[in-house]
Amino acid sequence: MKVAAIQMVSGTRLDDNLAQARALLEQAREAGAELAVLPEYFCFMGRHDADKLRIAEPPGAGPIQAFLSRAAADFGLWVVGGTLPLATSDPAHAANATLVFGPDGQPVARYDKIHLFRYDNGRERYDEAAVLAAGDTPTAFTLTDAQGQAWRVGLSVCYDLRFPELYRLLGADLLLVPAAFTHTTGQAHWEVLLRARAIENQAYVLASAQGGSHENGRQTWGQSMVIDPWGVVLAQRASGAGVVVADIAMSRLQQVRQQLPALQHRRF
User: Which of 1, 27, 106, 229 is the most exposed place for a label (fewest CB within 10 A)?
Assistant: First the structure.
């Protein structure tokens, strides 16, 4: 199966971001991808954290969700909508939610980011919990590709990457990591964490990132990539908007798991 990690440099205008996302999804489909994953905050990166509350949609309705459904159906793609803000019972907090739509445009899965990023090095400060509500449910779904092969696909978002216990619970063949890693933390840890999750779970990893200088002054790391179960980077994009495409094969995953049956040797 051919998969695509979509990299963006999202800005403050929702319509512009959706237009760019659609163009990149079309590019992924033209390259032969069956699954395309948008980055975290693909639809909007505001000037202030609370700005995302202004565009938070009720679950099941709204222009961002309609966009994802329509794009999936138009292109016949499995589309993973990076993250978008969904309204919660608390108007001061939104869920940072990943939504999955099948090639028929129907919703398949929802995952709310569990681990909320906080960082302060004296120059940069982030605290997602100020406006986001943490999720509490590890989520995976089954994707059946064009050849009839069923894949267990595990969902995660950005900062989740630092918590390996989540990925163990998912028990997936393919792990998705839409992200908006800061340049500082990404330069230090992004690739090594992604490759570690692939190696320890003997699974493919598809990581779609924000990558560049944003209107709000934020600098994101980029380096969207696809990694195989042995930890080999199959394809990668350094920075800027674009599409990273790679082929993944269940036979390769099974080969790695048979040759080194580490998952069978687990004691805890």
Answer: 106
